């Protein structure tokens, strides 16, 4: 009996143009600030860790309740141990995740043309809430799996969905500092007009990875779920 062929994910690349706009005024203003900080410091700061720290501190100085967040999780039978750092900021009661080098986290070897097109649609800088990020990670992880299989390559555990979700959305994620500088209503009042109040109750991803204790210490993509016509 001939082996069953894996059906590729159907991706409508043309629909990506409609996925770029920010989901809220708060996201758009935060993205603008992050992009400005990265543009100002990106050429002189080469290490991603250093740039992340500069961005987090600059956002705090502008009055944002922002911090570097650290995720760390233990090895399981299906997922290797790992750790990751990103930035978060609380805007009008909603936690927004900020990653200053988002696209590079999804690069894979010998990718198909379809996956390359999807990769190009992802922003260099991501700003968004956990619900939208969950959708993006699920879709891109599945697309990476299909791309690797089509090229006859093994899918490493660190490219699977659970591992990618654990990076940004693990319950073990801890803020490096807690409200070091309270937000100032007078700072950036002109640059951040009438931020849209967001609903704080979003769906929480339940990790399959056991959390591990952690020592304390420019473009936005929206709704990538519509990229898939048929889920595998």
From TrEMBL:
It holds the Pfam family PDDEXK_6. It comes from Glycine soja (Wild soybean). This is DUF506 family protein. InterPro entries: PDDEXK-like.
């Amino acid at each position: 009996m001939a082996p069953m062929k894996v059906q590729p994910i159907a991706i409508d690349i043309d629909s990506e143009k409609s996925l770029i706009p920010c989901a809220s005024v708060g996201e758009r203003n935060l993205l603008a600030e992050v992009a400005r900080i990265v543009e100002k410091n990106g050429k002189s700061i080469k290490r991603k860790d250093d740039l992340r720290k500069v961005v987090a501190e600059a956002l705090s100085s502008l009055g944002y309740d922002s911090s570097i967040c650290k995720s760390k999780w233990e090895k399981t039978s299906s997922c290797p141990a790992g750790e990751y750092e990103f930035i978060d900021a609380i805007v009008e009661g909603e936690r927004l995740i900020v990653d200053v080098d988002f696209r590079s986290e999804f690069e894979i070897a010998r990718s198909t043309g379809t996956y390359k097109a999807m990769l190009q649609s992802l922003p260099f800088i991501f700003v968004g809430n956990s619900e939208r990020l969950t959708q993006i990670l699920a879709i891109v992880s599945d697309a990476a799996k299909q791309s690797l299989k089509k090229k006859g390559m093994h899918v490493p555990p660190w490219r699977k969905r659970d591992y990618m979700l654990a990076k940004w959305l693990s319950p073990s994620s801890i803020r490096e500092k807690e409200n070091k500088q309270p937000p100032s209503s007078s700072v950036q009042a002109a640059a951040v007009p009438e931020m849209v109040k967001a609903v704080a109750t979003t769906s929480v991803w339940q990790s399959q990875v056991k959390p591990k204790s952690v020592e304390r210490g420019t473009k936005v993509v929206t709704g990538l779920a519509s990229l898939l016509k048929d889920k595998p």
